[in-house]
């Protein structure tokens, strides 16, 4: 279709906004909203790349242009659309970010009045022409129109709850009236968009047309409404799809509120969203819109909104590395990745690459292991088929991108190699010596090690600068985080290429300096150690897991240990015991479990017992003797009795005693320059360890608590329980100076390296 900005024969273009006219008041010179009138229909187009976000000038432009069209005697109907193949991706989130940071922003709640009075109920009908997407505020603008036409596969949804807020431009009132109450709640509470085809069945859109016919068909529909050939609908006044039975309404909201009540104290926005929707259903849309504005104001001021918005922006900044991504280097496209090792991790990496269309060479040492690795790739894809995410034909096509290999003969084709064998330094060194001989000189060589120093792995290579860390998290085809570990010798182009691969395979990268444990494992090594210390003091491990789940983690440290396998945890933990002996806590608890054969899920029992479906059940009797033995061995290590304090510990106290030493280790990483920015640790903690997104990440959360409180508590615990709680100099500095941890260390000597 012709873009709205083009002048066509017979079209009347409105003058530029800075020129005065009698048809509308002057607007800012650079208005991102234009209007063209052709054959009695005003085509109003939003232009704010890349997704036509509803920034303040866009909202002002919509208001001014719709008012102008409504006042123009030559206009019979109005079509609202977006430029460059998109309708609108929603409200400008930078405005939301500014508001959560306490910065002055313009309150745009009066835009609801614009949508109600001149878009939905103005003298001339409006039609939304939706291409590709209408999300958040974009869909709210479209729903205020009297009809909607969309292109095939266009996405429509209200995902605001992902950011800790609720729809604020009438979405809580119009969506239930257009698609029905149950579906509307599902779309809002789950932030679940739908495709145009489903939207047509539900009544959210009135027609689906090809992109090149979108404006023409929307224009025709607008004329038909103006000529009364098609009824004009005002969604906010239409209650036909709302349940008429009060009992049904109570049942629907009762079920939804039971779910929302569980998280209300941590995430109030689902409950607030239900308040607005229910008010509209029970008392009408006018009361509902007032409730929506009140609920939005409460949601946007919540800690959950602040954390979720912080995480949103933090996760989009991780790919920027000063001195690397800002010097004009372009990533080379990775067409073929070779994966050495077909175990759970290697097969997951192979699956992740193939899912994004990258050709894969999967190498193993013998046919049995190779067949098993390829079978894992096929099983990963079959799982997607079973869940309805792809057809079996597509799964077969993706699987065909994976080539099994028993030798390095084909490795000349690889643009990048990812080694994913067991954590054995000698084996890895041999592999990289072989790879250096077998691969092209421009091929990136990387290791998926989670613990071993990258320079040690590269020590037998002729050109050790070629190697970097490419640390995926298991299962690699599901987990979004991708740690890229650089050494002092890593060339910028290699780093840029690795970042490019992360984008190709849809992972969120975090660039990390070379150190024990890198980012996630390094920061979280005190997590399980502190939990074990609490158990040795007499606390129940299941109470600890419950407290950590209540904090917002998907599972507690002992359930997590069972999932990973305690042998793996002990192996990884030994690296920290070796490298940081003064700030670890060594408990006999988990080694005791291992000696008794309780390895976790894979053995059917650990801290929990597991049935055939791997359902976990607490097993206090099974671990009682192990707890007693570990506590007896640790009894003389503590300087004073703590039984009274333990009895008084709340869930919040337990969470602090486990997470404050994690914050402390994050501070050491910041002081040592392990990550580019503090928010990278926030992203890594959420995507790598399941830290609650609504808390914004480990550093962001710590700043809400305050460095002073954290340092003071750590000092108390250090006196009683030892070096695992010793606050580091950077944390102490921030506590004394009243500085934010996220600001990073002041320039000068790094006093925190221990």
Briefly characterize the structure.
By secondary structure, the chain is of the alpha/beta class.
Present the secondary structure layout:
Layout (H helix, E strand, L loop, with lengths): L11 E2 L19 E6 L2 E6 L9 H16 L5 E6 L10 H8 L10 H10 L5 E5 L2 E3 L1 H8 L2 E4 L4 E3 L13 H9 L1 H9 L4 E2 H7 L4 E2 L5 H13 L19 H18 L5 H15 L1 H16 L2 H13 L20 E5 L3 H12 L3 E5 L3 H20 L5 H8 L2 E4 L10 E4 L5 H14 L5 E4 L6 H4 L9 E6 L8 E6 L5 H13 L3 E6 L6 H18 L3 H11 L5 H8 L1 H14 L9 H7 L12 E3 L5 E3 L1 H15 L8 H6 L2 H22 L5 H12 L8 H8 L1 H15 L7 H9 L17
Key words describing this protein structure:
alpha/beta, 754 residues, 8-stranded mixed sheet, disordered N terminus, disordered C terminus
What does this structure look like?
With 754 residues, this protein is of the alpha/beta class. Helices cover 47% and strands 11% of the residues. It has 30 helices and 20 strands. α19 (520-537) runs antiparallel to α26 (651-672), α20 (541-551) packs across α26 and α29 (707-721) crosses α30. The longest helix is centred in the last third of the chain and has 22 residues, at 651-672. It is globular. The termini are far apart. Mean pLDDT is 93; it is low at 1-28 and 749-754.
């Amino acid at each position: 279709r012709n873009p709205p900005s083009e002048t066509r024969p017979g079209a009347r273009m409105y003058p530029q906004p800075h020129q005065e006219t009698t048809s509308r008041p002057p607007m800012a010179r650079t208005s991102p909203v234009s209007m063209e009138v052709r054959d009695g229909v005003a085509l109003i187009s939003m232009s704010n790349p890349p997704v036509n976000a509803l920034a303040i000038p866009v909202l002002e432009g919509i208001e001014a242009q719709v008012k102008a069209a409504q006042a123009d005697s030559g206009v019979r109907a109005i079509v609202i659309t977006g430029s460059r193949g998109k309708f609108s991706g929603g409200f400008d989130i930078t405005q939301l970010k500014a508001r959560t940071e306490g910065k002055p922003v313009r309150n745009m709640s009066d835009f609801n009045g614009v949508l109600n009075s001149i878009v939905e109920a103005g003298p001339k009908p409006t039609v939304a022409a939706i291409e590709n997407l209408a999300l958040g505020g974009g869909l709210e603008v479209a729903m205020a129109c009297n009809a909607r036409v969309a292109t095939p596969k266009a996405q429509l949804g209200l995902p605001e709850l992902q950011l800790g807020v609720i729809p604020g431009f009438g979405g809580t009132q119009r969506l239930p009236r257009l698609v029905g109450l149950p579906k509307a709640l599902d779309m809002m509470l789950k932030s679940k968009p739908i495709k145009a085809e489903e939207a047509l069945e539900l009544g959210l859109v009135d027609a689906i047309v090809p992109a090149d016919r979108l404006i023409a068909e929307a224009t025709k529909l607008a004329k038909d409404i103006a000529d009364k050939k098609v009824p004009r609908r005002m969604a906010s006044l239409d209650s036909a799809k709302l349940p008429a039975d009060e009992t049904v309404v109570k049942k629907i909201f009762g079920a939804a509120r039971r779910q929302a009540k569980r998280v209300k104290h941590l995430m109030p926005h689902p409950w607030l969203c239900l308040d607005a929707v229910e008010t509209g259903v029970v008392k009408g849309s006018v009361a509902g819109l007032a409730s929506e504005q009140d609920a939005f104001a409460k949601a946007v001021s919540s800690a959950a909104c602040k954390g979720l918005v912080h995480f949103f922006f933090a996760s989009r900044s991780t790919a920027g590395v000063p001195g690397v991504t800002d010097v004009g280097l372009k990533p080379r496209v990775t067409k073929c990745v070779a994966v050495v090792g077909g175990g759970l991790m290697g097969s997951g990496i192979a699956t992740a690459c193939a899912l994004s269309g990258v050709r894969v060479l999967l190498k193993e040492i013998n046919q049995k292991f190779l067949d098993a690795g390829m079978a894992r790739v096929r099983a990963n894809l079959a799982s997607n088929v079973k869940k309805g995410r792809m057809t079996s034909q597509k799964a077969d096509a993706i699987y065909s991108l994976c080539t099994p290999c028993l030798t390095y003969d084909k490795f000349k084709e690889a643009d990048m190699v990812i080694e994913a064998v067991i954590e054995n330094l000698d084996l890895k060194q041999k592999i990289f010596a072989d790879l250096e001989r077998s691969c092209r000189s421009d091929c990136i060589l990387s290791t998926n090690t989670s613990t071993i120093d990258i320079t040690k792995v590269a020590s037998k290579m002729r050109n050790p600068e070629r190697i970097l860390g490419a640390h995926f998290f298991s299962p690699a085809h599901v987990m979004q985080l991708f740690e890229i570990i650089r050494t002092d010798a890593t060339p910028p182009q290699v780093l840029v290429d690795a970042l490019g691969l992360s984008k190709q395979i849809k992972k969120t990268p975090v660039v990390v300096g070379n150190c024990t444990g890198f980012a996630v494992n390094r920061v979280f090594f005190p997590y399980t150690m502190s939990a074990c210390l609490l158990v040795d003091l007499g606390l129940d491990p299941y109470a600890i897991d419950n407290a950590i789940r209540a904090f917002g983690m998907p599972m507690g440290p002992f359930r997590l240990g069972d999932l990973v396998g305690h042998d793996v945890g002990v192996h990884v933990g030994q690296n920290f015991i070796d490298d940081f002996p003064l700030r670890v806590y060594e408990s006999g608890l988990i080694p005791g479990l291992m000696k008794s054969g309780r390895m976790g899920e894979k053995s059917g029992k650990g801290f929990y017992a597991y049935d055939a479906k791997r359902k976990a059940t607490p097993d206090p009797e099974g671990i009682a003797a192990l707890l007693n033995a570990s506590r007896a061995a640790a009894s003389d290590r503590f300087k004073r009795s703590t039984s009274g304090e333990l009895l008084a510990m709340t869930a919040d106290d337990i969470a602090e005693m486990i997470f404050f030493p994690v914050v402390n280790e994050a501070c050491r990483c910041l002081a040592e320059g392990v990550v580019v920015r503090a928010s990278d640790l926030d992203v890594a903690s959420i995507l790598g360890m399941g830290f609650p997104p609504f808390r914004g990440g480990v550093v962001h959360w710590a700043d809400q608590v305050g460095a002073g409180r954290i340092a003071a508590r750590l000092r108390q615990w250090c006196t009683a329980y030892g070096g695992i709680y010793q606050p580091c100099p950077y944390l102490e500095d921030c506590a004394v100076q009243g500085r934010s941890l996220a600001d990073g260390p002041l320039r000068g000597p790094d006093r925190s390296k221990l």
